[in-house]
Amino acid sequence: MTAKPTGFHPVFCTIVPPHVLDTLARNQDPALAAPARRTLERDAVERTHRRLTTVMGAPAVAPPEGAAADKPHRTIHDAGHRTELPGRKVRGEGDEPGQDATVNRAYAGLGATFELFQKSYARNSIDGNGLPMNATVHYGEDYGNAFWNGEQMVFGDGDGEIFLDFTIPVDVIGHELTHGVVQYTANLTYFGQPGALNESLADVFGSLIKQYALGQTAREADWLIGAGLLAPRVTGKALRSMKEPGTAYDDDVLGKDPQPADMDRYVKTGRDNGGVHINSGIPNRAFYLVAEALGGHAWERAGQIWYAVLTGGELAQDASFSDFAKLTVAAAREKYGQGEEVKAVTDAWSTVKVPVSGG
Protein backbone atom coordinates (compact mmCIF):
# COMPACT_ATOMS: atom_id res chain seq x y z
CA MET A 1 0.00 0.00 0.00
CA THR A 2 1.24 3.49 -0.79
CA ALA A 3 0.40 6.42 1.44
CA LYS A 4 -1.99 8.93 -0.07
CA PRO A 5 -1.33 12.40 1.34
CA THR A 6 -4.43 14.41 2.10
CA GLY A 7 -2.80 17.64 0.90
CA PHE A 8 0.66 18.83 -0.08
CA HIS A 9 2.59 21.09 2.25
CA PRO A 10 4.68 23.97 0.85
CA VAL A 11 8.05 22.30 1.46
CA PHE A 12 11.25 23.81 0.10
CA CYS A 13 14.08 21.52 1.11
CA THR A 14 17.76 22.50 1.11
CA ILE A 15 20.77 20.42 2.09
CA VAL A 16 22.56 23.23 3.97
CA PRO A 17 20.61 24.27 7.07
CA PRO A 18 19.67 27.96 7.31
CA HIS A 19 21.46 28.31 10.66
CA VAL A 20 24.76 27.54 8.90
CA LEU A 21 24.14 30.17 6.23
CA ASP A 22 22.99 32.67 8.87
CA THR A 23 26.31 32.23 10.68
CA LEU A 24 28.27 32.73 7.46
CA ALA A 25 26.20 35.77 6.46
CA ARG A 26 27.24 37.53 9.69
CA ASN A 27 30.96 36.89 9.14
CA GLN A 28 33.22 39.95 8.90
CA ASP A 29 34.97 38.57 5.81
CA PRO A 30 33.02 39.66 2.69
CA ALA A 31 34.33 36.63 0.79
CA LEU A 32 32.37 34.43 3.20
CA ALA A 33 29.41 36.66 4.04
CA ALA A 34 28.40 37.83 0.55
CA PRO A 35 27.84 34.38 -1.01
CA ALA A 36 25.92 33.25 2.10
CA ARG A 37 23.67 36.31 1.95
CA ARG A 38 22.99 35.78 -1.74
CA THR A 39 22.20 32.13 -1.03
CA LEU A 40 19.77 33.03 1.75
CA GLU A 41 18.08 35.61 -0.48
CA ARG A 42 17.77 33.11 -3.31
CA ASP A 43 16.41 30.46 -0.96
CA ALA A 44 13.73 32.92 0.20
CA VAL A 45 12.66 33.48 -3.42
CA GLU A 46 12.53 29.76 -4.15
CA ARG A 47 10.63 29.12 -0.92
CA THR A 48 7.97 31.61 -2.04
CA HIS A 49 7.82 29.94 -5.46
CA ARG A 50 7.33 26.58 -3.74
CA ARG A 51 4.39 27.98 -1.77
CA LEU A 52 2.80 29.26 -4.97
CA THR A 53 3.17 25.94 -6.77
CA THR A 54 1.60 24.25 -3.76
CA VAL A 55 -1.42 26.55 -3.90
CA MET A 56 -1.72 26.51 -7.69
CA GLY A 57 -0.53 22.96 -8.17
CA ALA A 58 2.70 21.92 -9.83
CA PRO A 59 2.35 20.87 -13.45
CA ALA A 60 1.78 17.16 -13.88
CA VAL A 61 4.67 15.44 -15.66
CA ALA A 62 4.08 12.06 -17.23
CA PRO A 63 6.85 9.64 -18.15
CA PRO A 64 7.78 9.73 -21.84
CA GLU A 65 5.73 7.50 -24.10
CA GLY A 66 7.28 4.06 -24.31
CA ALA A 67 9.61 4.70 -21.35
CA ALA A 68 10.70 1.50 -19.62
CA ALA A 69 9.47 1.12 -16.04
CA ASP A 70 12.88 -0.06 -14.87
CA LYS A 71 14.90 2.78 -16.44
CA PRO A 72 15.28 6.44 -15.42
CA HIS A 73 14.49 9.36 -17.67
CA ARG A 74 17.05 12.05 -16.80
CA THR A 75 17.56 15.54 -18.15
CA ILE A 76 20.33 17.84 -16.95
CA HIS A 77 20.16 21.60 -17.54
CA ASP A 78 22.80 24.30 -17.08
CA ALA A 79 21.65 27.58 -15.49
CA GLY A 80 24.87 29.31 -16.55
CA HIS A 81 25.16 30.91 -13.09
CA ARG A 82 21.77 32.53 -13.51
CA THR A 83 18.62 31.63 -11.55
CA GLU A 84 16.05 30.97 -14.26
CA LEU A 85 14.92 27.35 -14.20
CA PRO A 86 15.43 24.94 -15.72
CA GLY A 87 18.15 26.52 -17.91
CA ARG A 88 19.74 25.13 -21.07
CA LYS A 89 19.49 21.39 -21.67
CA VAL A 90 22.97 19.87 -21.73
CA ARG A 91 22.42 16.13 -21.31
CA GLY A 92 19.47 13.82 -21.86
CA GLU A 93 18.84 10.19 -21.03
CA GLY A 94 21.28 7.93 -22.83
CA ASP A 95 23.57 10.76 -23.98
CA GLU A 96 27.30 10.19 -23.66
CA PRO A 97 29.20 12.04 -20.91
CA GLY A 98 30.45 15.50 -21.85
CA GLN A 99 33.36 17.62 -20.67
CA ASP A 100 31.51 19.15 -17.70
CA ALA A 101 32.17 16.99 -14.63
CA THR A 102 29.34 18.66 -12.72
CA VAL A 103 26.82 17.66 -15.39
CA ASN A 104 28.16 14.11 -15.40
CA ARG A 105 28.01 13.81 -11.61
CA ALA A 106 24.43 15.09 -11.52
CA TYR A 107 23.42 12.61 -14.23
CA ALA A 108 25.12 9.72 -12.40
CA GLY A 109 23.64 10.73 -9.03
CA LEU A 110 20.10 10.79 -10.40
CA GLY A 111 20.75 7.36 -11.87
CA ALA A 112 22.11 5.99 -8.59
CA THR A 113 19.02 7.25 -6.77
CA PHE A 114 16.67 5.71 -9.32
CA GLU A 115 18.55 2.41 -9.13
CA LEU A 116 18.42 2.04 -5.36
CA PHE A 117 14.69 2.75 -5.18
CA GLN A 118 13.90 0.58 -8.20
CA LYS A 119 16.06 -2.44 -7.39
CA SER A 120 15.73 -2.48 -3.61
CA TYR A 121 12.17 -1.21 -3.13
CA ALA A 122 10.51 -1.76 -6.55
CA ARG A 123 9.79 1.96 -6.75
CA ASN A 124 9.62 3.48 -10.23
CA SER A 125 11.25 6.90 -9.82
CA ILE A 126 10.40 9.60 -7.29
CA ASP A 127 6.61 9.36 -7.51
CA GLY A 128 6.48 5.60 -8.03
CA ASN A 129 5.06 6.15 -11.49
CA GLY A 130 8.07 6.93 -13.66
CA LEU A 131 8.40 10.65 -12.95
CA PRO A 132 11.14 12.15 -15.18
CA MET A 133 14.18 13.17 -13.15
CA ASN A 134 15.27 16.71 -13.96
CA ALA A 135 18.17 18.67 -12.54
CA THR A 136 19.81 22.04 -13.03
CA VAL A 137 23.51 22.66 -12.33
CA HIS A 138 25.64 25.83 -12.12
CA TYR A 139 22.75 27.65 -10.44
CA GLY A 140 23.31 31.22 -9.33
CA GLU A 141 26.49 33.05 -8.40
CA ASP A 142 28.55 31.13 -5.83
CA TYR A 143 25.26 29.59 -4.70
CA GLY A 144 25.92 27.61 -1.54
CA ASN A 145 23.13 25.05 -1.52
CA ALA A 146 21.24 22.31 -3.33
CA PHE A 147 17.50 21.83 -3.20
CA TRP A 148 14.42 19.96 -4.34
CA ASN A 149 11.72 22.49 -5.25
CA GLY A 150 8.85 20.03 -5.60
CA GLU A 151 9.52 19.50 -9.29
CA GLN A 152 13.26 19.19 -9.87
CA MET A 153 16.76 19.17 -8.37
CA VAL A 154 18.96 22.28 -8.34
CA PHE A 155 22.69 22.41 -7.54
CA GLY A 156 24.93 25.35 -6.77
CA ASP A 157 28.67 25.41 -7.36
CA GLY A 158 29.48 26.66 -3.87
CA ASP A 159 31.74 29.59 -3.06
CA GLY A 160 35.00 27.61 -3.02
CA GLU A 161 35.73 29.00 0.44
CA ILE A 162 33.28 27.02 2.57
CA PHE A 163 31.37 24.84 0.11
CA LEU A 164 32.55 23.08 -3.02
CA ASP A 165 30.38 21.83 -5.90
CA PHE A 166 27.14 20.36 -4.54
CA THR A 167 27.16 17.49 -7.03
CA ILE A 168 30.33 16.04 -5.48
CA PRO A 169 28.63 13.98 -2.70
CA VAL A 170 26.15 11.51 -4.22
CA ASP A 171 24.32 11.37 -0.88
CA VAL A 172 23.46 15.08 -1.25
CA ILE A 173 21.79 14.25 -4.57
CA GLY A 174 20.03 11.27 -3.01
CA HIS A 175 18.99 13.28 0.03
CA GLU A 176 17.25 15.96 -2.00
CA LEU A 177 15.54 13.50 -4.34
CA THR A 178 14.29 11.56 -1.31
CA HIS A 179 12.46 14.71 -0.23
CA GLY A 180 10.53 14.15 -3.45
CA VAL A 181 9.76 10.57 -2.42
CA VAL A 182 8.51 11.83 0.96
CA GLN A 183 6.41 14.43 -0.86
CA TYR A 184 4.68 11.70 -2.86
CA THR A 185 4.21 9.33 0.10
CA ALA A 186 3.87 10.37 3.75
CA ASN A 187 4.21 14.09 2.90
CA LEU A 188 5.42 14.90 6.40
CA THR A 189 4.75 18.42 7.69
CA TYR A 190 7.97 20.41 7.48
CA PHE A 191 8.08 21.67 11.04
CA GLY A 192 9.17 20.33 14.43
CA GLN A 193 9.40 16.57 14.84
CA PRO A 194 7.61 15.59 11.59
CA GLY A 195 9.90 18.01 9.77
CA ALA A 196 12.95 16.46 11.44
CA LEU A 197 11.66 13.04 10.38
CA ASN A 198 11.35 14.41 6.84
CA GLU A 199 15.00 15.50 6.97
CA SER A 200 16.09 12.26 8.60
CA LEU A 201 14.41 10.10 5.96
CA ALA A 202 16.22 12.13 3.30
CA ASP A 203 19.51 11.54 5.13
CA VAL A 204 18.78 7.83 5.59
CA PHE A 205 18.08 7.13 1.94
CA GLY A 206 20.76 9.58 0.79
CA SER A 207 23.28 7.56 2.78
CA LEU A 208 21.84 4.27 1.50
CA ILE A 209 22.19 5.52 -2.08
CA LYS A 210 25.88 6.23 -1.45
CA GLN A 211 26.39 2.87 0.26
CA TYR A 212 24.58 1.03 -2.56
CA ALA A 213 26.64 2.82 -5.23
CA LEU A 214 29.87 1.94 -3.40
CA GLY A 215 28.80 -1.60 -2.49
CA GLN A 216 29.43 -0.93 1.20
CA THR A 217 28.15 -2.80 4.22
CA ALA A 218 26.81 -0.90 7.22
CA ARG A 219 30.15 -1.33 8.97
CA GLU A 220 32.17 -0.13 5.98
CA ALA A 221 30.07 3.03 5.48
CA ASP A 222 31.16 6.38 6.88
CA TRP A 223 27.55 7.46 7.72
CA LEU A 224 28.43 11.05 6.83
CA ILE A 225 26.10 13.34 4.89
CA GLY A 226 27.96 15.63 2.51
CA ALA A 227 31.49 14.26 2.88
CA GLY A 228 33.63 16.05 0.29
CA LEU A 229 31.41 19.13 0.20
CA LEU A 230 33.33 21.27 2.71
CA ALA A 231 36.27 23.25 1.36
CA PRO A 232 39.79 22.50 2.71
CA ARG A 233 39.81 25.56 5.00
CA VAL A 234 36.86 24.19 7.01
CA THR A 235 37.57 22.14 10.12
CA GLY A 236 35.03 19.40 9.55
CA LYS A 237 34.31 16.23 7.60
CA ALA A 238 30.70 16.71 6.44
CA LEU A 239 27.40 18.49 7.08
CA ARG A 240 26.09 15.77 9.40
CA SER A 241 27.10 12.47 10.96
CA MET A 242 24.41 9.82 11.36
CA LYS A 243 26.72 7.69 13.49
CA GLU A 244 27.77 10.49 15.85
CA PRO A 245 25.42 13.48 15.56
CA GLY A 246 27.12 16.68 16.69
CA THR A 247 30.60 15.73 15.44
CA ALA A 248 30.48 16.59 11.71
CA TYR A 249 32.27 19.92 12.08
CA ASP A 250 33.75 22.22 14.71
CA ASP A 251 35.01 25.26 12.87
CA ASP A 252 35.93 28.82 13.82
CA VAL A 253 33.68 30.13 11.02
CA LEU A 254 30.81 27.62 10.95
CA GLY A 255 30.75 26.96 14.67
CA LYS A 256 30.06 23.51 16.10
CA ASP A 257 27.66 20.95 14.68
CA PRO A 258 24.53 21.40 16.86
CA GLN A 259 22.84 18.04 16.24
CA PRO A 260 21.76 16.11 19.35
CA ALA A 261 22.23 12.35 19.59
CA ASP A 262 19.25 11.65 21.87
CA MET A 263 16.09 13.21 23.27
CA ASP A 264 17.84 14.47 26.40
CA ARG A 265 19.51 17.07 24.17
CA TYR A 266 16.56 17.80 21.88
CA VAL A 267 16.77 21.42 20.70
CA LYS A 268 13.66 23.56 21.09
CA THR A 269 13.82 26.44 18.63
CA GLY A 270 11.59 28.45 16.34
CA ARG A 271 14.35 28.76 13.75
CA ASP A 272 14.95 26.27 10.91
CA ASN A 273 11.25 25.32 10.91
CA GLY A 274 11.53 24.21 14.51
CA GLY A 275 15.00 22.71 14.17
CA VAL A 276 14.30 20.22 11.38
CA HIS A 277 17.97 20.00 10.31
CA ILE A 278 19.13 19.88 13.93
CA ASN A 279 16.90 17.34 15.68
CA SER A 280 17.03 14.98 12.69
CA GLY A 281 20.21 13.72 14.33
CA ILE A 282 18.10 11.70 16.77
CA PRO A 283 16.22 9.49 14.25
CA ASN A 284 19.38 9.44 12.10
CA ARG A 285 21.31 7.82 14.92
CA ALA A 286 18.47 5.36 15.53
CA PHE A 287 18.67 4.16 11.92
CA TYR A 288 22.46 3.87 12.11
CA LEU A 289 22.16 1.77 15.27
CA VAL A 290 19.65 -0.57 13.62
CA ALA A 291 21.84 -0.98 10.54
CA GLU A 292 24.95 -1.54 12.64
CA ALA A 293 23.22 -4.13 14.82
CA LEU A 294 21.86 -6.09 11.84
CA GLY A 295 25.04 -5.86 9.78
CA GLY A 296 25.29 -6.56 6.07
CA HIS A 297 23.90 -4.04 3.61
CA ALA A 298 21.88 -1.34 5.35
CA TRP A 299 19.50 -0.92 2.40
CA GLU A 300 18.28 -4.47 3.00
CA ARG A 301 16.66 -5.18 6.37
CA ALA A 302 17.07 -1.76 8.05
CA GLY A 303 16.18 0.10 4.86
CA GLN A 304 13.21 -2.16 4.15
CA ILE A 305 11.75 -1.39 7.58
CA TRP A 306 12.12 2.39 7.16
CA TYR A 307 10.76 2.27 3.60
CA ALA A 308 7.75 0.22 4.73
CA VAL A 309 6.88 2.90 7.29
CA LEU A 310 7.39 5.75 4.81
CA THR A 311 5.12 4.20 2.19
CA GLY A 312 2.77 2.06 4.29
CA GLY A 313 -0.04 4.58 4.66
CA GLU A 314 -0.09 4.69 8.48
CA LEU A 315 2.47 7.45 9.01
CA ALA A 316 0.58 10.65 9.80
CA GLN A 317 1.73 13.92 8.28
CA ASP A 318 2.25 15.34 11.79
CA ALA A 319 3.95 12.21 13.19
CA SER A 320 6.20 12.55 16.22
CA PHE A 321 9.46 10.64 16.71
CA SER A 322 7.59 8.25 18.99
CA ASP A 323 4.86 7.69 16.39
CA PHE A 324 7.48 6.85 13.79
CA ALA A 325 9.42 4.63 16.19
CA LYS A 326 6.34 2.56 17.04
CA LEU A 327 5.63 2.05 13.35
CA THR A 328 9.19 0.84 12.72
CA VAL A 329 8.82 -1.75 15.47
CA ALA A 330 5.52 -2.92 13.98
CA ALA A 331 7.02 -3.01 10.47
CA ALA A 332 10.01 -5.03 11.67
CA ARG A 333 7.70 -7.52 13.36
CA GLU A 334 5.42 -7.78 10.32
CA LYS A 335 8.28 -8.26 7.84
CA TYR A 336 10.65 -10.43 9.88
CA GLY A 337 8.78 -11.85 12.85
CA GLN A 338 9.73 -11.55 16.50
CA GLY A 339 13.48 -11.82 15.98
CA GLU A 340 16.70 -9.84 15.87
CA GLU A 341 15.18 -7.13 13.66
CA VAL A 342 12.57 -6.17 16.25
CA LYS A 343 15.22 -6.22 18.97
CA ALA A 344 17.57 -4.04 16.91
CA VAL A 345 14.85 -1.48 16.23
CA THR A 346 13.60 -1.42 19.83
CA ASP A 347 17.12 -1.13 21.24
CA ALA A 348 18.01 1.68 18.84
CA TRP A 349 15.07 3.85 19.80
CA SER A 350 15.73 3.12 23.47
CA THR A 351 19.33 4.28 23.05
CA VAL A 352 18.22 7.63 21.58
CA LYS A 353 15.52 7.81 24.33
CA VAL A 354 12.46 7.78 22.05
CA PRO A 355 9.63 5.66 23.56
CA VAL A 356 8.24 2.78 21.50
CA SER A 357 5.75 1.31 23.98
CA GLY A 358 2.53 0.39 22.26
CA GLY A 359 4.38 -0.60 19.06
Separation of the first and last Cα atoms: 20 Å
Specify the structural class. alpha+beta
CATH architecture of the largest domain: Roll
Strand count, sense and barrel status of the largest sheet are:
6 strands, mixed
Low-confidence stretches: 1-8, 53-58
Shape: globular
Q: How are the strands of the largest sheet arranged?
A: 1-5-6-4-2-3
Order of secondary-structure elements: EHHEEHEEEHHEEEEHHHHH
Number of DSSP helical runs: 10
Please identify the top-level CATH class of the largest domain: Alpha Beta
The name of the CATH topology of the largest domain is Elastase, domain 1
Q: Estimate what percentage of residues fall within beta strands.
A: 5-15%
**Gyration radius, in Å:** 19 Å
Mean pLDDT: 92
Number of domains: 2
Salient structural properties:
Elastase, domain 1; Neutral Protease, domain 2; alpha+beta; 359 residues; six-stranded mixed beta sheet; two-stranded antiparallel ribbon; 9% strand; 42% helix
Topology summary:
Blueprint: E1 13-14, H1 18-25, H2 30-56, E2 74-78, E3 88-92, H3 101-121, E4 133-137, E5 146-148, E6 153-155, H4 170-184, H5 192-214, E7 224-225, E8 240-241, E9 250-251, E10 255-256, H6 272-275, H7 281-294, H8 301-311, H9 321-336, H10 340-351
Parallel strand pairs: 2-4, 4-6
Antiparallel strand pairs: 1-5, 2-3, 5-6, 7-8, 9-10
Helix pairs in contact: 1-2, 3-4, 4-5, 5-7, 7-8, 7-10, 8-9, 9-10
